[in-house]
Amino acid sequence: MKIIRSMILTVFLIGIAALGYPEDNPTLKVIYSRKSVRHYIDRKATKEDLLTLVKAGMAAPTAVDRRPWAFVIVTDKAKLEELEAGLPYAKMLTKSGAGIIVCGVMEKALPGEGKEFWIQDCSAATENILLAAESIGLGAVWTGAYPSKERMDYIRKVLGMPENIVPLNVIPVGYPVGDEKPKDKFDPVNVHWEKW
How many CB atoms are closer than 10 A to CB 180? Predict the structure, then answer.
């Protein structure tokens, strides 16, 4: 079965290459090149680059155009160290030199059962940030906060956030060492046509 899946994948990728993807398509090239970066060189992203990433985040789709997001950019080394100390999966924050915390603003969320769409909206914003980082030569990684009460409370305490702000994640951002490589995650077994 593994050999058959591998053969199907190879044929698919040859077909994609024949169509000119991703080499001839800059958007697909960035998408396929994106990787989770946890190792950084000693060079910091500029304020302009960080604002570019947040602007890309705000270009994400959002339910009923509510834009229930806010972004906290942290470059202060002491703050990064403090965040790093209490977040088990963000131990690279001080080395990266910057962090972007993607937050849900509950007053901007839809009312009623639509309230939870903030998670999708902020997740779309996060993916835009990750792709934008890849496209300008930076590295980034999504480290989760929500739904861990302990992590969310810790981030709120360190950054002085009110209770109505929900930190979805912390994204370390910096210049990659180059160790991490993109993974081909395509698996035809996960594709269904017309029905399950």
Answer: 14
